[in-house]
């Protein structure tokens, strides 16, 4: 077996967070402090505090699998979606407390805040996207056009447009204010599993069930880049300050790609089994992943100046909820 060289620039596993009883479906960093929210098939949400000697909080209210979790940009609220057909808003404190939103007629797969935190966007197995007013806790409008389950939906950084992907094998771009479609990208193979806007707002990364990650330029509605990275790509997330993205797959790998140079930099392994989700923190120096092994892993990036492309395997760091 050839020896793997490890440099000071290699991403490093810093925390292994244990507390969920079933697989971790999604993870989200608090933009304002050292907290991570995770959600699970065990119907719970856990807010992890990475500061030393800080406890984690477990929130329960959903009655089925929690499919998505998302911190507001001000860090004061968490939104979650569930197969129980609801969206919930939580206050991320020890006392918790939540409000539920009900308008979907089937499992809700995704939820995200608008850039100003005044609206929520949700997507569902009922094939629709729905928009909600956060302060008034009211349903505003529906986006109709997908012909199968909606897997992921996000606002653009300026909040003017929305991107969504579905099991109907399309990536759709919408006008956020009028709910009207702007453009539809048709996928030749596989369906979209996750979308994410580049911070510049002109590019969208799309993870697909066929294992590829595609980058689209929405100024000219063209495919920019196409990478085959996994057996089944489950998530994709852009680095907040550089032209890197990170993808995860059911093959148990994490891929880090330099989109400016168009080449993969790292393949990371740390989870025991498939990985469902990943996210960077606001500063881009950390990222978290959640997997079928019920764990949340926290990694330090360290790769922004690297020139190498090794494969790393790490699995030794541990921490349990409540430590």
Automatic annotation (TrEMBL):
Protein name: Uncharacterized protein
Keywords: Repeat, WD repeat
Family named by the database record: Belongs to the WD repeat POC1 family.
Recorded GO CC terms: centriole; ciliary basal body
Any Gene Ontology biological process: cilium assembly
Repeat listed as a keyword: yes
Keyword Heme: no
WD repeat boundaries on the chain: 17-50, 59-90, 101-142, 143-184, 268-299
SMART domains assigned: WD40
